[in-house]
Specification:
Largest interface: A-B, 69 and 60 residues
CATH superfamily of the largest domain in chain B: Alpha-helical ferredoxin
Radius of gyration of chain A: 19 Å
Shape of chain A: globular
Distance between the termini of chain B: 64 Å
Structural class of chain A: alpha/beta
Strand order of the largest sheet of chain A: 2-1-3-4
Strand content of chain B: 5-15%
Oligomer: heterodimer
Distance between the termini of chain A: 31 Å
Strand order of the largest sheet of chain B: 2-1-5-3-4
CATH topology of the largest domain in chain A: Rossmann fold
Shape of chain B: globular
Number of domains of chain B: 3
Order of helices and strands of chain B: EEHEEHEEEHHHHHHHHHHHHH
Number of domains of chain A: 2
Helix content of chain A: 40-55%
Number of strands of chain A: 8
Strand content of chain A: 5-15%
Number of helices of chain A: 14
CATH class of the largest domain in chain A: Alpha Beta
Chain lengths: 290, 314
C-alpha cells in the first residue's frame, strides 16, 4: 500500500531517528512511503500565533501537493505537524472569511486547493490500515517483560473535535501498539500532559520542568522506558534528557523511544539500525536486547 | 423508567483525617445528573458530604470536579454516561487548588489571576457620564463572543500544566477574559491589558488542555494565540520571556521564508547563542545524538511559492 508521507522538519533534522525507524518498519509492513513533493514546514505551534492566514496557507500548500500526487490523505510521524495540518483544514472549512484571505495567498502562489486531503498520524495508519494483528505477525523478538510508559502528549489528542481519532482522556493507540510488541504498557497520570517543548523558545526553565515531570511520573508508575508518538516530544524527552538530568539533579535517566523504534526492535532490528541514542541503547543492552 | 444501581467512589477530605475514599450506592436513571447523585448521597446517606452545586445547568460553574479523572462539571455529566463497565464512577476535587473539604477546593488563586486581567469593560468616561454612546458592530461582537462565555468554574486552570509550574502565568481563563476586552473597541484600556498579558501569553504551551476541558467551549488557548499575535507591535515592558520569544519567532520566520523549512541547529544558534549551543552539544555528544545536529535537509525547491504565501497579499 502506498502512503503519502510528510516527515516534517524535526524528523529530517535532530529527530532523524524518528524517520529512520518509521521508514524501516513501513517496509516490513508493505507500506510504501511516498514523501510529499517539495513539502514545506507547517509552522505548527507558532505560525498561527503570527498569522492564521499564513499558517493555513502553508499547510494547504502541502496538502495540495499530496493531492497532485494522487492521494486523498497523508501520514506524518509528528503530532505537531499532524495537529497543524488538521487545524488548518478545519479552519479553512469552517471560517469563510479566513478562507477568502487564504485563497488570496494561495492564488498569489498559483495554488488552487479544494480541501479534499486528510492528514493523519502514522500511528493511525498503523492501527487503521495495517491493523494490530498484522503488526503482531511481524514481531520476531517479542519485548517480553519490559515495562513501557505509554505517553501521548498533547497535539495528537487535542482538540478532540479536530483530531478525532481517540478519546483525549482515555487514549489507547500507543498502549495498543506497545502491547503488540510484546512489551507491557504502563499508563501514568501525565500521559497526555504537555512535554514542555513549546516553551523552549520562550520560557525554557518551565519547559524543562514539564519534561522532568513527565519522565518522573512515568518512572514512579513503574515504567522502565518511555514511548511517545511525536518528533518534537523526541527532541524534548530524548535529545534533551541529559540537560534535564543536570538541571534537576536527578540520579536517573529514563530511556526514551519513538513508537516506531520500539516496534522496530520487536521486528528484530538492532538499536543501531533504528538510530536509537546511547542512553536507550545502553539500557537495552542491560536488559538483554542488543 | 429503568433505574440502575451505581457505585460512586468519592475522594473525601478533611483537615483531621486527610484524604480517603468512600463508596456509596445510588439508584439513578438515564436522566440523573451527577449533581443529583450527590444530592441523594448527602440527603439520604452521608450528611457530611461536602460539594458545591447551584444552577444545575452549566451556567454558574460551582460544581467543577474531576469525574473519572476528567475535569468536568457535575451538572453537565449524566450518571449513566459516566459509569464504567463495573457501573462505578470516581469523583475527586479539582487538581491544583488547595483542598478545603471533600469535593470543595479553595479557588481563590483562580479569582486572583482573573482580577489581574481586569475582567470588566473600561468604558469611555463620556459614555459612563451618559454623554455619549458606544456601539458594537456584529463583526466585532463575533470576535469577542466566544471568549466572554467563561463561567469562572476553574476547570481550565486546574488542568493547565503551565499554571502548576509557573506563578507568572495568569492561566487560561484570565487570558480569555483579557483578550475579550483587547478585541473590544469600546474598551479604553487595551494597551494596559496587552502589557499585562503579553509576557504571560508566552508562558502557555498551546497544549489545548483548556480547550478540551472548558464546559462552555471558550477555547482559552485561542485567546492566548490571538494575544501573542500582537507581539510585533508590542512596546510594553520587555521581559526575558518576551525577548526570547521575539528572537525565536524571528529566527523561525526567517528560516521558513528563506528555506521553506526549520533547521533546528540554525534556529538553536539564533535563539540561544553560541555559548548555550556549545553546552548542549556536549550533552548531545554524550547521548550519541550529535550526528543528527548536522543532518542537512533540502530547502523547498519552489521557494517562491513560500515567499508569495508569506508575503503581502495582492
Amino acid at each position: 500500500m502506498k502512503v503519502a508521507y510528510y516527515p516534517g522538519c524535526a524528523s529530517h533534522g535532530i529527530a532523524k531517528d524518528v524517520d529512520i525507524a518509521t521508514q524501516l518498519i513501513a517496509k516490513d509492513l508493505d507500506l510504501e512511503l511516498m514523501e510529499v513533493d517539495d513539502w514545506n514546514c507547517c509552522g505548527g505551534g507558532f505560525m498561527d500565533d503570527k498569522s492564521e492566514e499564513i499558517h493555513v496557507a502553508l499547510n494547504l500548500r502541502n496538502l495540495e501537493k499530496v493531492k497532485e500526487m494522487g492521494f486523498n490523505k497523508m501520514a506524518t510521524p509528528c503530532s505537531v505537524c499532524l495537529n497543524s495540518h488538521r487545524i488548518a483544514s478545519d479552519k479553512y472549512e469552517k471560517n469563510p472569511e479566513l478562507k477568502e484571505n487564504v485563497d488570496k495567498r494561495l492564488k498569489n502562489a498559483d495554488i488552487e486547493y479544494d480541501n479534499s486531503v486528510d492528514s493523519e498520524h502514522f500511528i493511525w495508519t498503523l492501527i487503521r490500515d495495517v491493523g494490530i494483528d498484522n503488526i503482531k505477525k511481524h514481531v520476531k523478538k517479542p519485548l517480553k517483560g519490559i515495562k513501557i510508559g505509554t505517553y501521548y502528549g498533547c497535539q495528537l489528542l487535542r482538540p478532540y473535535e479536530v483530531m478525532g481519532f481517540e478519546s483525549p482522556f482515555k487514549p489507547t493507540s500507543v498502549m495498543d501498539l506497545v502491547a503488540a510488541t510484546g512489551a507491557t504498557p504502563v499508563s501514568f497520570p501525565l500521559k497526555s500532559a504537555c512535554c514542555g517543548f513549546p516553551l523552549m523558545g520562550s520560557n525554557p526553565p518551565v519547559g524543562l520542568k514539564m519534561a522532568d515531570n513527565i519522565l518522573g511520573n512515568a518512572r514512579n508508575n513503574g515504567a522502565e522506558m518511555l514511548v511517545h508518538p511525536c518528533s518534537l516530544c523526541h527532541l524534548q524527552l530524548d535529545v534533551t534528557q541529559l540537560k534535564i538530568k543536570d538541571q534537576f539533579k536527578q540520579d536517573w535517566t529514563l530511556p526514551v523511544l519513538y513508537i516506531t523504534q520500539l516496534i522496530g526492535l520487536s521486528f528484530g532490528y538492532t538499536p543501531g539500525e533504528l538510530g536509537i541514542g546511547k542512553i536507550t541503547t545502553e539500557y537495552l543492552k542491560e536488559r538483554g536486547f542488543t | 423508567m429503568e433505574e440502575k444501581e451505581i457505585t460512586v467512589n468519592i475522594k473525601k477530605y478533611n483537615e483531621n483525617d486527610g484524604a480517603f475514599w468512600k463508596s456509596y450506592k445510588v439508584k439513578a436513571d438515564r436522566y440523573t445528573q451527577m449533581t443529583e447523585v450527590l444530592r441523594r448521597i448527602k440527603t439520604e446517606q452521608d450528611p457530611s458530604l461536602s460539594y458545591r452545586a447551584s444552577c444545575h445547568m452549566a451556567v454558574c460553574g460551582s460544581c467543577a470536579m474531576k469525574i473519572n479523572g476528567v475535569p468536568s462539571l457535575a451538572c453537565k455529566t449524566m450518571a449513566f454516561k459516566a459509569t464504567d463497565e463495573k457501573n462505578e464512577i470516581n469523583l475527586e476535587s479539582m487538581d491544583y487548588y488547595k483542598e478545603v473539604r471533600d469535593l470543595i477546593p479553595d479557588i481563590d488563586t483562580f479569582y486572583d489571576r482573573m482580577y489581574k486581567a481586569l475582567p470588566g469593560l473600561a468604558a469611555d468616561e463620556e459614555v459612563i457620564a451618559g454623554k455619549a454612546e458606544q456601539r458594537m458592530l456584529p463583526e466585532e461582537q463575533k470576535e469577542v463572543w466566544q471568549f466572554q462565555g467563561c463561567i469562572y468554574c476553574g476547570l481550565c486552570v486546574s488542568a493547565c500544566p503551565s499554571v502548576k509550574e509557573d506563578e507568572k502565568f495568569l492561566g487560561p481563563a484570565a487570558h480569555a477574559k483579557g483578550y475579550r476586552y483587547i478585541a473590544d473597541d469600546r474598551d479604553t484600556k487595551k494597551e494596559e491589558r496587552i502589557n499585562t498579558l503579553m509576557d504571560s501569553a508566552w508562558r502557555c504551551t498551546s497544549c489545548y488542555m483548556c480547550y478540551e476541558v472548558c464546559p462552555q467551549d471558550v477555547q482559552p488557548v485561542i485567546a492566548i494565540k490571538k494575544t501573542k499575535s500582537y507581539l510585533n507591535d508590542y512596546r510594553g515592558p520587555e521581559t526575558d520571556v518576551i525577548a526570547m520569544a521575539r528572537k525565536h519567532d524571528n529566527a523561525i520566520l526567517e528560516l521558513i521564508n528563506d528555506t521553506g523549512k526549520i533547521k533546528e541547529s540554525s534556529l538553536y544558534l539564533k535563539t540561544f547563542g553560541l555559548g548555550e549551543a556549545i553546552k548542549d552539544s556536549v550533552n548531545m555528544l554524550r547521548s550519541g545524538k550529535i550526528k543528527y545536529a548536522f543532518t542537512k535537509d533540502n530547502d523547498v525547491k519552489n521557494i517562491n511559492e513560500i515567499k508569495k504565501i508569506m508575503g503581502d497579499k495582492k
